[in-house]
UniProtKB/TrEMBL annotation:
Alphabetical list of Pfam families matching this protein: Methyltransf_31
Source organism (scientific name): Orthonyx spaldingii (Chowchilla)
Name of the protein this chain belongs to: EFMT2 methyltransferase
Residue ranges of domain Methyltransferase in the record: 56-185
Gene Ontology molecular-function annotations: protein-lysine N-methyltransferase activity
Amino acid sequence: FGPSVLGTREHWDAAYERELQTFQDIGDAGEIWFGEESMVRIIRWLEKHKVPLDSSVLDIGTGNGVLLVELAKSGYTNLTGIDYSPSAIQLSEKVREKEGMSNIKLKVEDFLAPSAELSGFDICIDKGTFDAVSLNPVDAAGKRKLYVGSLGRVLKPEGFFLITSCNWTKEELLNEFREGFEILEELPTPKFCFGGRIGNSVTALVFQRK
C-alpha cells in the first residue's frame, strides 16, 4: 500500500471536526473502527486472561473514545486515551461526559513523540493507529520505527499490546514488532473467501513486551 491522506494529521483533524459537529447536532459518536466486534474481541481477551480491573490501559489513537467507554462499562478503572487530533479528544470528552464516565483520562498526545508522563502502562491497545502511521506520505518506514520505540517506552516489561490492523498480515506485524516484543496469540477475526482462497480482512494480535 502506498502513501495516503489517511496517514496525515490534517485528514484526521478535519474528520473529527465533522464528527464533533455531528455529535453536537444529533448525539452520534461516529464510526467505530473495525466495528463493535473488535471491541468485544479485546474485552473478551482481557476477561479470559483475568487481567485485573485496575490495570493501567492506554488506548493509542482513541478517536471518539468509545472503546474506553466500553472498557469502563466492563469494570476497568484505570483508562487513558490519547490522540494527536485535538478534535478527536474534544469528541471523546463529550462522549465520556454523555456516558457519565468521568474517570477516563484523555490527552492530546502524538504517540510518535510521547511526553515523559506517558509511561508504565500494563496494557496498550491499537485499533487502526499503526495502520494510519503506515500510510503517512512522509517517511512512513521511519515513523513505524518511532512507533515501535514509543511502545517500548510506554508499556511496562511483560505488559500486553493488543493490535487490530486491516493493512498488515500476521507475518508482517511479527516482523514490524520483532524488536522487544513477542507474539502471544492471534485473535479470531472474520474470514472471507476469494478465488477459492480464504483470508482475513482484519488481523488482531496480542504481543507481550520482553
